[in-house]
Amino acid sequence: MGTLSVFLDVPLVKKADIPLDYYGEDPHPQKVLLGHAGCQTDAGEAWIPPVVQRILLQISQDPTLNHEYLPELGIYEYTRAATELAIGKESRALLENRAGGVHTIGGTGALWIGAEFLCRWYKPRFSTPTALYIAKPQLDSLGCIFQVAGFTDIRPYHYWKPVSLTLKTLWGHHKLANAPTGSIVFLHAPEEIGLKPKEWEAVAATMEKKQLFPFFNIESQGLASGNLDRDAWALQHFVGQGFELLCAQSFSRTFGLYDELAGNLIVVTKNNETLIRIQSQLGRQICTTWWCPSSLGARVIGTVLNSPALLYEWKLSLRMVVERIMLIREKLKEKLRILGTPGSWEHLTAQSGMCSFIGLQSSQVEFLAKHKHIYLFENQQINICSINSKNLDYVAQSIHEAVLATSLGDYNLDLEGVDRS
């Protein structure tokens, strides 16, 4: 058989600079991971709504449940309720039976199935490859999904000004207005910078004029404002304007079900016949990808969404989390003000939701990692839930020191030289 492997030509994928990796290797007792992906409690533990814990116990003791394969499109009661949550129960698209959901393995699974479908079947009647626009902060983490699915023309757009720490007033309108007709635009809602309805209306008008196709991503509905409909306003507006679109929906953060991934790919079309054809193709894709979705997470979510009493309890839990997030934002801004940290920190409370553009330079992010054992992504985004009553003072003081040190121009390092001793 020989001694050489037939896989000699397989290249090694370069490991990305993921904060979690450095954090895990750091033995320092005061280390903080501001790049955490999930929603956490003040004790630094994964947040799980009490109603979810109860439903999990009930399901485990339900003798009527079996473990048979699910249909390829998943649990209808779950996808129907999830779709209603996002686009509105009274949406004309639902009432006219031209909108539906597809049960996926988490939000990432919805993105993958949607991207693969679009790459194969989206034909805007042009010979050149379809351009796909994606926000710069999501280019590295989600852009690869579209790349692997087959998109070759992926273009970033910007909606955040890192220098002035403000929202771009035109929010990429120049980019979108000059996009090739028929391009796909990946939209994130609710987003941390909080576009107002009129700004979303302007985005929709530009996209309608250029015949651009919206692909929404909703992964934290309810955790931005505490109001489910308000957080989904942008999506509901696009649906109301008659757009055909896709939307990847995730419940990991809002239900605390990180290891029981349950997603939903929402499809909105012009008529029922088109919806049926698209769902048939998505079903075939699912059969060749994961055969059928997993059931536990979807059963929990479906049970809550289809019960008025449980739904009300879950909404209250979301509001409590949002109130905590808003309080942390206020406290962090106030502590930086008291410390006299150079710069304006108003953007901390102007934004919403779990994630926030902190407004630090790359050198300041590196300073925090090397000298203060605080880790976050280079795109300046942090998870506000990673800050709690135990580490708030330390995080504020560390940010203050990072800004002072780097503003003096006496700091220069490479992240590979991070001291983890």
Written overview of the protein:
By secondary structure, the chain is of the alpha/beta class. 45% of the residues lie in helices and 13% in strands. The protein has 17 helices and 13 strands. Helix 3 packs across helix 13, helix 5 packs across helix 6 (136-149) and helix 16 packs across helix 17 (392-407). The chain is globular.
Distance linking N and C termini: 46 Å
Widest sheet: strand ordering: 2-10-9-8-7-3-4
CATH topology term of the largest domain: Aspartate Aminotransferase, domain 2
- The 3D shape can be described as globular
What is the highest CATH level, the class of the largest domain?
Alpha Beta
Instruction: Identify the CATH architecture of the largest domain.
Output: 3-Layer(aba) Sandwich
Our count of helices gives 17
Unreliable spans: 410-421
Instruction: Please provide the ordered H/E string of secondary-structure elements.
Output: HEHHHEHEHEEEHEHEHHEHEHHHHEHEEH
- Share of residues in strands: 5-15%
Number of separate domains: 2
